[in-house]
Amino acid sequence: MSKIESEIQPLMDSHAISPRLQDYFKRCIEFHTYPAPGLLIGVFMVDYAVELLGAVPGEKLYSVCETQKCAPDPLQVILHCTSGNHRLRIIPMGRFALTLNRPSTEPFTDGFRIFIDPGKLEKYPLIKAWFSNDPAFNQRAKAVPLIDEIFRAGRDILSPEKVRVKVTPKQKWQSGTCRVCGELVPSDLLDKGVCIGCGPNAYYQKDLSSPQRQ
């Protein structure tokens, strides 16, 4: 356990964090592997959205996260919303915000969006410096005071808004064969017979010394 992690319990106790939220924080830190500031704020965001939605533990919910950094993890740990079960959509807009809604067969459904409100950060200088990526802010040196300020702030730095969420129904699809790699992919992901993995999204080069498929 790192020095920072050893400080978490005393900090939560000093700010009278509820047992339920303490459990969320511990599980999310274990999943994320360290107490990142965005992760901790994300726990408050998820808890806030669930409350506004009037949801109960274990209820099937759908989520949208507007950043790839930290915030998706509390959605996975607390609500079991994952990319794999299609209950987590990550749309990398660069905004630290998330939205929750219930399942619906309608084109749109009610949901709640929670975001870090820049107008509420003046009372929390460390959070503001971290969130604005202030070059003068040394997160390593200020890690524990920053976490302390996050626990003190809680929901106070967040703002909610009721929104109408566009429902994305399951799409029927057919498979096609990439003419480069020979693997099957959804046909709508082929461009002139080539999959995006062999095209613009290629992220590796083959090791020609390794055994090749016959």
Keywords:
5-stranded mixed beta sheet, two-stranded antiparallel sheet, 60s Ribosomal Protein L30, Chain: A, 6 helices, about 210 residues, globular, 2 domains
List the helices and strands and how they pair.
Layout: H1 3-14, H2 19-32, H3 37-53, E1 62-65, H4 72-79, E2 88-90, E3 97-101, E4 108-116, H5 125-131, H6 143-153, E5 158-166, E6 175-177, E7 184-186, E8 190-191, E9 194-195
Parallel strand pairs: 1-2
Antiparallel strand pairs: 1-3, 3-4, 4-5, 6-7, 8-9
Give the mean pLDDT: 94
- Category from helices, strands and their pairing: alpha+beta
Tell me about the largest β-sheet: 5 strands, mixed
**Count of domain modules:** 2
**Main β-sheet, spatial strand arrangement:** 2-1-3-4-5
The CATH level-2 architecture of the largest domain is identified as 2-Layer Sandwich
- What separation lies between the terminal Cα atoms? 48 Å
Evaluate the radius of gyration.
21 Å
Beta-strand percent range: 15-25%
* E-strand count: 9
Order of helices and strands: HHHEHEEEHHEEEEE
- Unreliable stretches: none
Number of helices: 6
Q: Find the CATH topology of the largest domain.
A: 60s Ribosomal Protein L30, Chain: A
Shape: globular
CATH C-level name of the largest domain = Alpha Beta
